[in-house]
Amino acid sequence: MTDFLTPIEPRTFFDTVGLFATGVCVITTDGETGPHGMTANAVTSLSLDPMLIIFCVAKRAIMADYLSKPGAKFTINVLRDEQVAISNHFAGRSKEGEQPSFRFVEWPGGPRLEGVLSAIGCEVESLATGGDHHIIVGKVVALHQGIEPHNPLLYYKSRYHDLTGKLNQPAPVREDLSADGPQLFWDPWEG
């Protein structure tokens, strides 16, 4: 147990935040050589009027560079419970020779992953600094709901889960949390 007088260690912070169950998304945008994506779980709605959504990206991530350009667009692709391999791929954790099958569809928010549970296309409204991350505010320009069944991929305690309780497998995380602080997912992938 940590009290307010004890310095908080990055690993303790990471483990505590990991008790908050979230969905798993792949954020996609147009990169210099084609679509670029990163796996993320720090995503939330911000406003209904106007429709705004936010997500957080490490300042050192390639995605941060792409989204800081004028007119940048991005898509939040909400993954289905059977899309663990896609999550791992965009987190840079695909196993050798195990590239998952996926395809991009063009639409108003930039590249969208085909077959996802849902997608939210956005234009970058603003970018703010929050510690070692940027907070990206997106103005919603397009919405997509995938076909039934709507079974999301969940992230809880550094593991993937589903609503049935059958899925329970490790999710990719950084091993060293002491140097840069916690970051659940990152974006070494470029396609």
Structure, explained:
- The protein is mostly beta strands.
- It has a single domain, classed as Electron Transport, Fmn-binding Protein, Chain A (Pnp Oxidase, Chain A, Roll), CATH 2.30.110.
- It has helices at 10-17, 62-67, 84-90, and strands at residues 22-23, 25-30, 35-40, 43-48, 51-58, 73-78, 104-107, 110-113, 118-130, 133-145, 154-156, 159-161, 168-170.
- The strands form three sheets. The protein has a seven-stranded antiparallel beta sheet. It has a four-stranded antiparallel beta sheet with strand order 1-11-12-13, with no helix packed on it.
- β11 (154-156) and β12 form a beta hairpin.
- The longest helix is centred in the first third of the chain and has 8 residues, at 10-17.
- The protein is globular, with a radius of gyration of 16 Å.
- The relative contact order is 0.24.
Helix fraction, binned, reads: 10-25%
> How do the strands line up in the largest sheet?
3-2-6-9-10-5-4
* Uncertain stretches: 176-186
What's the total number of strands? 13
Which fold name corresponds to the CATH topology? Answer: Pnp Oxidase, Chain A
How many DSSP H or I helices? 3
Q: What is the first-to-last residue Cα distance? A: 43 Å
What's the CATH superfamily, by name? Electron Transport, Fmn-binding Protein, Chain A
* Rounded average pLDDT: 85
Give a short account of the largest sheet.
7 strands, antiparallel
β-strand percent reads 35-45%
Shape summary: globular
Q: Regarding quaternary structure, how should these chains be classified?
A: single chain
CATH class: Mainly Beta
Secondary structural class: mainly beta
